[in-house]
What we know:
The protein is of the alpha/beta class. 41% of the residues lie in helices and 16% in strands. Helix 2 (43-57) runs parallel beside helix 4. It is globular, with a radius of gyration of 16 Å. It starts with 8 loop residues before the first strand and ends in a 5-residue tail after the last strand.
Amino acid sequence: LAPKSGRVSIDGHDVTNARPARRARRGLARTYQRLELFTSLTVRDNIQVAGEIRNSWSRRGRINVAAETDRTIELVGLGDVADRDVSELPTGRARVVEVARALMTQPKVLLLDEPASGQTEQETEAFGRLLRQLVDERHLAICLVEHDVGLVMGTCEHIHVLDYGQVIASGTPDQV
């Protein structure tokens, strides 16, 4: 939806009304509330597809897709299932595949829409640790839209609480 007010920028570049491909080229990647994976492909192939697409439009230079896929699989802890069909994975692991696929575009900002949806408590805890690792090691900005208060409070540095689009609280987890 087009915003009614405000501006969205990435590194000073206005992407408010930009098409998704332009936003991606500027460094924005996202996942969806509903799993959006290629269910007929393996975990590795799902991740590799994003690297191939990135190489087709990136102005930041080409990546070695196979090598970057292997690094990303290792980073997110999917080595034990890399060659399995994604349709065989439990929801929590499938969510990690989505994040890995998004990482293949080498984003600066990662938007996650309800990633804890369908995850067990243990999967959500592991997912939160992965997000902190991505922030700490890759200096990635993550915008997390989530109802799981435990994940939000245990993962986020700054929180905005919305009620029907209105900010009702904002600050650190302790402040909120």
